[in-house]
Amino acid sequence: MLRNLFILLLLSSSAHAQVLGGKNVYSFLDLPAAPQITALGGVNVSQQNNDLSLALLNPALLRPSMHTQLQVNYAGYFAGVKYLHVAAAFHVPSVATTFATSLQYVGYGDITHTDAAGNVMGTFRPNDLAWQISASRKYLEKWYYGLSIKYIHSRYLQYQSSGISTDVGIAYQDTARGWQAGLMAKNMGTQLSAYGGGEKEPLPFDLQVGISKRLEHVPLQLSATLHHIYQFDIRYADPGFEEGTVIENGDTTNRSSGTVDKIFRHFVLAAQFEIGKYVELTAAYNHLRRKELAMVSQQGLSGFSLGVGVVVNKLQLRFARSWYQRTVAFNHLGISLPLNQWMGLGKFGDRIGWKPD
User: Fold this and answer.
1) What share of the chain is helix, strand, coil (3-state, %, to 5)?
2) Distance CA 347, CA 329 (A)
3) Per-domain residue ranges of the chain
4) Is the dihedral of CA 80, 73, 24, 324 positive or negative?
5) Which keywords describe this protein according to UniProt (predicted)?
6) Which CATH entry fits the domain spanning 26-235+256-343: 1.10.10.10, 2.40.160.60, 3.40.190.10, 2.60.40.10?
7) Which of 8, 142, 200, 344 has its CA 20 to 30 A from that of 187?
8) pLDDT, tens only, 117-166
């Protein structure tokens, strides 16, 4: 089984490889759906934590300890954009499988509708949504594998589109030594219908690999994740560049960046520190985000993100803040409830607690 998953992950890297920067559809799928994801820099496939939202980063991170978790997350994004994410999980001992389902909704507010001459014809409310079903199982002592299937729908006035995609992930966890590694193929799929009946566009495919380590004598977990590992140069082809640029295959490319910068743009680094039994502090750095969005003269905290979580027996509360530019950031709030601890749902399965595997 694991061998077949490895083959699928590797083959998928050549199926949808493309230059980054506005060349795929449903880009909202890359938005961090939960505070934990925001705090981790938006990309992580190996984090060792009992937060249900990790299943969005890698379905192999969906674990039995997340049994009956119900999670609700909300973010006030930029320019009045708001999005909501709701998820729930359930472990079924008879088939040794943990299942989860989630819904992500993105609303772009009221947009003025005008004709070609600029006459106001009213307003409309564009939106995107993705409904996901995930399943995860354990293999032997230290391996996990998972699969997610997503139905995607997008509507902008009279223009609508729908699609379907799959995420496949594996994870290797050595709890005795505090290590976990993950591999994830994301958004393998297609549009079922294109906007306005036009040509179908590719989905935001990604192939990611990462590793996390819990330190032995310090309550600290360190993570390093590489994204878009199938493509070396992932710089955005910005037509605004003039000096030191060339035209290649219709894209404007700046040749001034060195090899080290190109490599580091694949990395997202994160650290999570536990304060006592109930508080988690998370910080991360996304180099690609900093390079693409920071102002040259005032970079500030661009690319950095911070988060705090309060984790008790019957509740998880999380808050995260992510800086895209020096003075531009957004906030993310989330709550998780273990329903088996509140409502006795353990009668449908073992009363699994909150501690990680």
Assistant:
1) 15, 45, 35
2) 43
3) 26-235+256-343
4) positive
5) Signal
6) 2.40.160.60
7) 142
8) 888 988 889 999 999 999 999 999 999 999 999 999 999 988 999 999 99
